Amino acid sequence: MSKIGLMAFATAFLLTGFSYAAEKIAFTCSGTMSIRPNAAKSAVNTSLVIDLDNGVVTGDIGWCGSPCSFFSMTQVTETRIEFEAQNEQGIMDRTTGSLSVTDEVDGYERWTMYDATCKPAEKSGGSYHPG
Asked: pTM of whole model > 0.90?
């Protein structure tokens, strides 16, 4: 991530930090998805919305797929957000934008791992109020 991009990301999160602004923050994320046990990797481009007021993360990532991924935040610190839903756990680094989500499927000997980097979504003309 460029120095300017990293500064914009950090600023977006610091502005919402512990003040818990009412606005949701939308992110675009890109990286890889791997499915075990065969570890086949594929590119993934997705989006997430962080809603600090309601303590939820929503997005097109996770075992149930788009658009049903809805996570409850379990811990929010100055540097990271942790969230989970059923058999899924995720961590987003608030400084770097690093995202890791793991899906473990009960009854199946496989799991999915998402490793991505997220940045604030571009605003398109006018007022921006994501999902």
From this structure: no
